[in-house]
Amino acid sequence: MRSPRRPATAAALAAPLAAVLAGGCAPAARPSGAPAAATPAPSAAAPTASTTLTADETRMRDAVRAHYDASIDLLARAVDIPSGTHNLAGVRRVGDLFATELQQLGFRTRWVDAPAGMRRAGHLVAEHPGQGARLLLIGHLDTVFEGDDQKWVRQDTIARGAGTGDMKGGDVAMVLALRALKEAGQLERMHVTVIMTGDEEAPGQPIAAARTTLTDLARASDVALAFEGGSRSQISVTRRGSSSWTLEVKARQAHSAGVFSEGAGYGAIYEGARVIDEFRRTLSGQPGLTFNVGLVGGGTAAATDTSLTRITSEGKTNIIAPTFVARGDLRFLREAQKDSTRAAMRAIVARPLNGATSTITFTDGYPAMPATDAGARLVAAFDGTSRALGYGAVQAQDASSRGAGDVSFVAPFIPGMDGLGVSGRGAHSPQESVSLPSLRMAAERAAVLMSRLSREWPRRPAS
């Protein structure tokens, strides 16, 4: 269950924002083992937070509205291409669709294949060299679900289907914003790079290799904007990291009549239940920390399949079970919180019940994206943009109310902001939908914001 969404308070943002307005720009914290980030050059002032549109910005807004209906048609075509993460041909077809759109805007596009052993489609990269701050725009092409019952269905201002909100809708908002910039005569001068990953919903492993293209592009950029699901009043400059864990228990197999005895012991299932419940009792309640159990199995035999999403188990009621397996995830605000939680989980596992032996392994996933002064600065710029367009104030979103996202991988290198996409319901479920008017809002705000950042965000010196 997701935590309620709580915007950051004005007090929480005031101190870092004041420091930035005075000229500071602290680099993002980096995961252990990550290369040090290049520090952006200080800026004498934050990007404009003007709540009035210039003539060029008014042209951008009008261009978005002029192409709104055509963009809905583009979204329908994208949604009707099945592109679950493991549908490699489908992901590539969606990439080809967006590549054509970006080529029409003057971008050079290329497809980056994933290593064959990953069984992933790869990523679309589009590049538009120019002046000013180097913007990196992030989207993804794959969906959680697909199938005939997940095709595009429109009912007035609501549309349903796989990827309508997460995140083919965000990809279309990105393209629509770039089209508006081109028609307003602004894109020609701008330096913009786009990456749409093909495996955001289920990244290939090892994940560091799966995200090499993204991190390489981040090193050559100044600021990142990601187009995952958006909100009228909130934007994300912090995201929790995520990783997975697997608990395996082995125990003595014996007749059930002897369970709990010194000779027979407690068995693997009781030990697995002890460990999981002690996780809950010992670690729950820490701000920003969750550790979900998503899959369990036990008996005389229990084994996961190659996808790690299915456990096959068997057993009998009169046998003390010798095997137990559980898999779950761990989400955290900072890398230090991840490390301390893992240490506590290992300590719990190291105290098994009589007759059992437990082991726990961890697999790194998405790094945490912590709060920074530069993030507060981006929020201020986006808030001014939203007010100028008549959409009202915007605040920073609580990191615990969002899942992990590709933008986290750029955090060790450059500032980033997520949540510039469309608004909808039912993400990661067969009931996924999008509010179509949010496509227009997302594109208008993104176009004006990109134009302002391009002119005013500091460009890092060449390394």
Automatic annotation (TrEMBL):
Residues 29-50 are annotated as: Disordered. Its cofactor is Zn(2+). Residues 238-352 form the Peptidase M20 dimerisation domain. It comes from the Bacteria. GO terms for molecular function: hydrolase activity; metal ion binding. Residues 1-28 form the signal peptide. SUPFAM superfamilies: Bacterial exopeptidase dimerisation domain, Zn-dependent exopeptidases. The keyword Zinc applies. The keyword Metal-binding applies. This is Peptidase M20. It comes from Roseisolibacter agri.
